[in-house]
Structures are given as structure tokens and as C-alpha cells.
Amino acid sequence: MKHLFTTIALAGVVTAYTDIRHKRFMVKNIDPIVNPGQYRSHMHSFFGSDAVTKDLPTTAELQKGCASGENPNDLSVYCKSRPLHRSRIPTLYYVRGPSDHVEVNPGMFSTYYENIDKAEIPYPQDFFAIAGNASAKSQNDVNENFTGLTWWCENGPEDRQNRNRALMPRVTCSGNIQVILRFPDCVQKANIKNYAYTAANGGRCPSGMKRVPQLRFSVRYNVRSLIPQGWSGAPPLKLACGEVGEGYCFHGDFINGWFDDAQKNLLKATSRNQWMGIDGAKGQGKAGTTCGPKDRDPNMGTSDYAKSLEMMKMYKN
Ligand SMILES: *[C@@H]1O[C@H](CO)[C@@H](O)[C@H](O)[C@H]1NC(C)=O
Ligand SMILES: *[C@@H]1O[C@H](CO)[C@@H](O)[C@H](O)[C@H]1NC(C)=O
Q1: Ligand 1 pocket residue status of 143, Cβ below 6 Å
Q2: Domains of the chain: which residue ranges?
Q3: Nearest one of 116, 118, 179, 190 to 153, comparing CA atoms
Q4: Where is the signal peptide (predicted)?
Q5: Are 21 and 219 in contact (CB under 8 A)?
Q6: CB count, 10 Å around CB of 266?
Q7: Which ligand neighbours the alpha carbon of 141 most closely?
Q8: pLDDT in tens, 87-122
Q9: Residue 149, ligand 1, Cβ within 6 A
Q10: How far apart are CA 245 and CA 233, in angstroms?
């Protein structure tokens, strides 16, 4: 019965898609979307175009940078945790001791573009979006129905039936810990700051908005090599924005850095079940990065966890 269910669930998510893998090129206490111009954010890990600093960049500015992803036609920024607009995500730490935080560099960070067959328009110029809730403290703050946010052991064991789905696994993973997060798939062309999820609106965009491909972050952390002794109960892992063992505050940013010609190709990836590479004038979709992305503002801000906390305090006082 369990197998049958899994098959159906998977069939439901097999939709037109493509993916791009990225290397993290910077960890810094900046958030170009939430705190533009300031070094007061919690720590974010950055992926994508390195033309990202504390200020919110335009698509054209991002396109002058060097991409850390494998597709030379995509100079978007992706962040986990809060940095700027390339992509950014919150930085994950292994809490080895009370004041000993070891950064966990994601073994794999992939951006998937899904439901492309349903998209009406490409990402508008200068479009940026935030997904997730950086201040979430409980499952109720997460909205998994839209964001899809959940943490699990990539290769088992599966323990989500016994815990909140946005907590980190309470059992030692046999392989990587994985987390996914979906981005809004509707935007108002005349006011790109107005965006929404079809899943929050009965499966369609609110009136006045157009549907864009749905971006999904997928991050895999190799915690087995870092924590070979494993764990039972809350794992000794902490997001820069949250508490030990909690994954609720995981969030991401996306700033559009796609070149127009490649976005036209992106919109052609409409097969319901076949992966397609996105090529463009800058090269093949899986060409890989060769330019050496780096921090463009190395003397400002910090990549040190303790120092980032001090800088956040300074701003609060
Ligand atoms: C984000 O989390 C906070 C809790 O800190 C909660 O009050 C708020 O409603 C959440 N936002 C959303 C959009 O769910
Ligand atoms: C999420 O979706 C499920 C299934 O459609 C529904 O039962 C549940 O009430 C939804 N949860 C929220 C918080 O909207």
C-alpha cells in the first residue's frame, strides 16, 4: 500500500522540468532583498552570479558577473538563508560545541524549473522573489502546501510520520540530509514585486498575474562525513536563522539573471516527463563554470558566524 501511494505521489510531480547545479561561491552576512545596503543580516550562502553585493542588483548587472552554476546562460542569484540576490539560502552549521559552529557546505545545490508547460511568460527583467519564512518558529509558520518546504534523509530512514515535516530528521541519515523549497509561480508584469503561488489560489494565478515556471531549490548536505557518529533526536545542526535541529526558517531568494534567448529555450521545456537542457548564446546548458566566481566586496561584511551575530546586535541597538 505504501508503495502504491509513493508511485502516485511521484506521478503527480512528474512535470515539465529542467535543472541546474550550482557551487556556493560566498558566505556572508548580507541580504540584498531584505536589508539592501547593509551588513546586518544573518549568514547566507550564495550561488549563481557573483555580481551580487549588499545592494539589490538588476538583471543586467547580474549578467555582467560570473556564474557559479553550470549554465552560462543563467546569471541568476540563488541564496539559501539570506544573502543577496543571486540565489541565497541560510547557512547551515554543525554545532560541535557551545561556541563552535562549523559551516556545512552543501554537497549539491540544484535549482529545478517545473510546470514549464503551464507558464505563460518568462521571468520579467529584474524579477526577484523570496520563498519561505526566515522568522518561522513552528510548522504553522511554514505553509508547506505552497512552499513544499520539508527536510528528510535522502536515502532514508524516513521518519516524517513521527515529526513535523519541516524539522530536521530525528534519526541518523544513511546519506545526505535534503531540503526542498518552492518559489512563487505567478507575477504581475506591471508590478513585479507583486507575486503569488498558484497553490494558494486554487491552482491558478490571481487575476492580473501571469504564470511563470516554478523554481524549486533542492539542497543536499553530506552530514554523514561531518557527523560520522550520527545522532538520535534533534541533530546537532543549526540554520543561521533558527534553532538547533529545526528547519522551519529555511528560506531562499532568487534574482532573475537569465539571458532572454535562453529563457525562450527554457519555456520550450514543456514535455511532461522529459528533462531538457537549456542552451543559449553563452553556451550549452551543462557547459559548466570556468570564470572563477568570487566575492566582489571582500573587505566588507563577514563570513564568520560569531562576528555576524555581533554585527546584527550592533544594528539592533
Ligand atoms: C512567519 O513566521 C512568523 C513567526 O515568527 C509568523 O508570525 C508569520 O505569520 C509567518 N508568516 C507567514 C507568511 O506564514
Ligand atoms: C494543505 O492541503 C491539504 C490537502 O489539500 C489540506 O487538507 C490542508 O488543510 C492544507 N493545509 C493548510 C494549512 O492549508
Answers
A1: yes
A2: 2-316
A3: 179
A4: 1-16
A5: no
A6: 24
A7: 1
A8: 567 888 899 888 888 888 888 888 888 899 999 999
A9: no
A10: 8
Question: Does the beta carbon of 135 lie inside 6 Å of ligand 1?
Answer: yes
Instruction: Tell me which H or E stretch contains 89.
Output: strand 88-89
Average pLDDT over residues 18-34: 65
Give Cα separations from 188 to 77, 87, 125, 134, 192 (angstroms).
21, 21, 12, 24, 5
Query: Quick check: 25 pLDDT over 60?
Result: yes
Q: What is d(CA 239, CA 79) in angstroms, rounded to the nearest whole number?
A: 13
Tens-digit pLDDT profile for residues 122-174:
999 889 899 999 899 999 999 999 999 999 999 999 999 999 999 999 999 99
Q: Is the CB of 138 under 6 A from ligand 1?
A: no
Report yes or no: 198 and 211 within 8 Å, Cβ to Cβ: yes
Which of 18, 17, 19, 20 shows the shortest CA–CA distance to 70? 20
**pLDDT tens digits, one per residue of 191-228:** 999 999 999 999 999 999 999 999 999 999 999 888 99
Residue 167 — φ and ψ, nearest 5°?
-80, 160
Dist. CA 143 → ligand 2 center (Å) = 9
User: How many angstroms from the chain centroid is the CA of residue 21?
Assistant: 11
DSSP state of 169: P
Query: pTM, whole model, 2 decimals?
Result: 0.79
Q: Report yes or no: 128 and 86 within 8 Å, Cβ to Cβ.
A: no
- Nearest partner of 83 among 131, 132, 27, judged by Cα: 27
Residue-level length of the chain: 317
